[in-house]
Amino acid sequence: MLVFGGNTHNDTSMSHGAKCFSSDFMAYDLACDEWSVLPRPDLHHDVNRFGHTAVYSDSVMYVFGGFNSLLMSDILMYTPASCSSAPNAAVCAANWLGVHCLWNATLGTCLPWDSNPGPLDEQTALASCGTRTCR
């Protein structure tokens, strides 16, 4: 799950108490039950916003409009890393931020953890998660 922007007026741990419109970019890993902070977009203009709409289609996240003291009419696009680009088990196990992959030895390919064909036991998925630390 990808989450971009929002209203941080309630002074969340990410807001640093100063801004109302966020460009925070986070990913929730369903397999590991863990949040990761993704790098903020490096764009030519300020992308802080709330009240926008986002959709994920054909491996691309689209963010439409929103508000940052002005009504915005732009579209932002984000394409996360793809498991299929990993050439071997070691690269597949690297777990890019926001993407969780598992090596399928039978097929000799790297697949998203939730689309691995055949039985995937919970311990295999959990073993691919990093060590959890209390924060």
Structure report:
It holds the Pfam family Beta-prop_ATRN-LZTR1. It comes from Coregonus suidteri. This is Attractin/MKLN-like beta-propeller domain-containing protein. By secondary structure, the chain is mainly beta. It has 2 domains: 2-78, no CATH class; 83-127, no CATH class. Helices cover 7% and strands 36% of the residues. It contains 2 helices and 8 strands. It has helices at 89-92, 122-127; strands at 2-7, 21-29, 34-37, 53-57, 60-67, 71-78, 101-104, 109-112. The strands form 3 sheets. The protein has a 3-stranded antiparallel beta sheet with strand order 1-2-3, with no helix packed on it. Strands 4-5-6 form a 3-stranded antiparallel beta sheet, with no helix packed on it. Strand 5 and strand 6 form a beta hairpin. The model has no long low-confidence stretch (mean pLDDT 79).
Low-confidence stretches: none
Strand order, main sheet: write it out: 1-2-3
Rg (CA only): 17 Å
How many distinct beta strands? 8
Largest sheet: 3 strands, antiparallel
Structural class: mainly beta
What does the average pLDDT come to?
A: 79
Strand proportion: 35-45%
Organism: Coregonus suidteri
InterPro entries: Beta-prop_ATRN-MKLN-like, Kelch-typ_b-propeller, LZTR1/Attractin
Domain Attractin/MKLN-like beta-propeller: 1-76
Protein name: Attractin/MKLN-like beta-propeller domain-containing protein
